[in-house]
Each structure stands twice: as structure tokens, then as C-alpha cells.
Write a structure and sequence with these properties.
The structure is a single chain. With 402 residues, the chain is α+β, with helices and mostly antiparallel strands. It is 46% helix and 19% strand. The protein has seven helices and 14 strands. The protein has helices at residues 3-21, 23-50, 101-157, 163-192, 203-220, 333-338, 375-401; strands spanning 55-64, 68-71, 76-81, 88-89, 94-98, 223-225, 230-233, 242-243, 248-253, 259-265, 277-282, 290-298, 324-330, 346-352. The strands form three sheets. It has a six-stranded antiparallel barrel. The chain has a four-stranded antiparallel beta sheet with strand order 2-9-7-4, with no helix packed on it. Strand 11 (277-282) and strand 12 form a beta hairpin. Helix 3 runs antiparallel to helix 5 (203-220) and helix 3 (101-157) runs parallel beside helix 7. The longest helix has 57 residues, at 101-157. The chain is elongated. Residues 259-349 form the p-hydroxybenzoic acid efflux pump subunit AaeA-like beta-barrel domain.
Amino acid sequence: MSAIESAKTSADANDSGMAAKDPAKRRRTLLIVASVFILAALLWFLLWFFVLSTRVKTDNAYVGGNQVAISAQVPGTVVAILADDTQHVEAGQVLVKLDSTDADTRLAQARSALAQAVRGVRQQTSSATSADAQVVAAKLDLKKAEADLKRRLPLIAAQAESPEIVQHLRDGVEQARAAVNAAEAQAAAAHAAIEGTDVAQNPVVLQARANFRAAWVAAQRNAIYAPVSGYVAERSVQLGNSVQPGQQLMTVVPLHDLWIDANFKESQLRHIRIGQPAKIVSDLYGSDAVYHGKVVGLGAGTGSVFSLLPAQNATGNWIKVVQRVPVRIALDNQELDRHPLRIGLSTDVTVDIRHDQGSVLANAPTQQPVAQTGVYDQMASQADAEADRIIRANLSHATAAN
């Protein structure tokens, strides 16, 4: 054995002897180690009780939003494209124009038909007035014939008038009475077409008005409008394309009223309730922008159920996979204005589950529309205003003539 090994052996023996001679020091060492483990366990328990148990978190969460498909409502040939990908458009802005030659021709025909219908009803009104005058004239003729017969009857008794003349008078009375009946029948027929309504509400005018309204709307639909404000994406339409109704031309994506679809594991859903607050951090901005939202609903099924090819678990080769359910979280529009997001972006979502007494599923249908637009209402109101103008213009001639 060398001198060095002998020295090490002697040192180890001395240390063992000292440890054996100082049990208090050993107990203190064990106590310190145990205290460290107990403190770590206590800190972990406090962290779990006050932090981890009050929230659920997932990074399987993505920004969602509406994707409004812009399509043609009438067939036509594209003559102008007024918006392109990435550009911002406002609701009511014209995006695409179609050739309007055929539609303008049909509109002119419908305009003429409406004017003709108004004038036709005016003519029927005049005919009814003329028929009433003929009834009055026929009644006067009958009254005159009856007066002549009454005046001649005493002369027959005195044999001052021949019976043939009196018979002719009686025949004249019958003819006058028949003429009155015929005039009344013609007057009734003339009034049947206009009775109970004015010119503007006459069925013939209303039918022509409806045809004009349809032609007006069809002509306006050669200009394809943006129903909502947003950003253009997926433009596929090109100049000269012959498009058909329902054919998608582009998409408008509103970057307001966005939401988060957070796909939580089924084991995380136990305490998630509608109305709970949530914090969202996007991969785009990181911790520089923290969004504050709230849970507005839980999906009616797992993602695998609604997939294109749902899993068939009733097979021999089965492996259990933890399922996920989408939880929709609404975002604050003011925060979106400060830090805009795009649909499809990845996010980290943390839901505060301390208050878990709310509803898991919605209890009543919403009373407000999910989305709406007034762009097409304006188009219909313009058609009604133009139809009213045509009716007034063709009625004014009758007023001026009278």
C-alpha cells in the first residue's frame, strides 16, 4: 500500500469516528434535508391550490372569425373588379361589376309596362264614368217614354188616338227600360275592374309594379356589393369570366367580432362554465399583448365527431385517444383594434375556473341576430321609390287634364 492510500484510509477512519462521536450534527443534517423537502412540498401545494387549481390552460387554440363568401346573384360577364386580396372594403362598396346590357333592356320594358298599366287603369276609370253617364241618359229616355205613354192613354179612352200609336209608345217604354238595364250592366262591368281601390293599388298596377321592382333589383345585382366591412381574401374572379348565380368570386373577412376556439381535453372541461373570464396570448404578439375574453359556449361534440371521416371505434384495432371539445371565447373589440388578429392564428388560452356555478350549455336561444346587413334593404327601397315616381308621373297627366 502506498503512502497516499494509507493517508486516505486514515482520514476516512477519522471522519467516521468523528461522525459516530457527533450524532447531534447528523440529526441536524437530516432535519435540514427533511425541512427542505417539506417546504418544497408546501410551496407546490400552495401553488396548486391558489394558482393551478383555479385555471385550465391549452395551447391548442386558434383565432376564429366569419368568412363571408361573395357570389353572384344573377348571371353575367365580369367587366370590372374593384377590390383585390388584402384590401379593406366597406359594407355597401361595389366589388365586382357585370355587363348590364340585358338587364337594362328588361328594366326599360318593365318601366314602360308599369306606366302603361297606370294609364290603362286611368282609362278604365274614365270608361266607368262614361258608363255612369249612359245610365243616367237611358233613365231619362225611359222617363220620357213613360211620360208620353201616360199622356196618350186618356186619348184612347176618348177614341182620339189610334191603338197602333199607343202600342208603339208601349214598345218604346220597354225598349227604354231594356236600354237602362243594359247601361247599368255595362256600368257595373266597368266598375268591377276599378272598384274598391285607387289607381296605385289596382291589381293590374300592383302586378306591373312587382315586375318593375324585380327588374330593378336584377339590374342592380349586376353590381356585386360587400355585405360587411372587412378584408378581401381568396379572389378568384377574373375579367371576362361568365359567372352564374351562387358562384363564389372572393371572400370578405371581417377582423372585428373575432373569437377563439380553444380545444380543451375532456379531462379539463369539468369546471369550465359559460361566462368565465379568459386570458389569451397570441403567438403573433407574445406577452406584449394579452387579450381578455369570456367563455360564450362549449361545443356540442368533440372534434373527431364532426371531422370529414369520423373515427370508428367499434373495431378490433382500438387505441384510446383523449378527445378535445372546442370552447368558444369571445374577444374584446377594443383590444382587437389595438392589436389586430387574423383568423387561424395560434394562441395560448387560460380560463379562470374559480367560479364554476354557471351553465355548461346555453339555456335559451339568442334574441339577437348573429350577423345582419342592410345593404340589400337599401336596394329594395330604391326600387320602391322609383316605382312610386313612375306612378305619380303617369297620374299627374290625368290631374292636369282634369
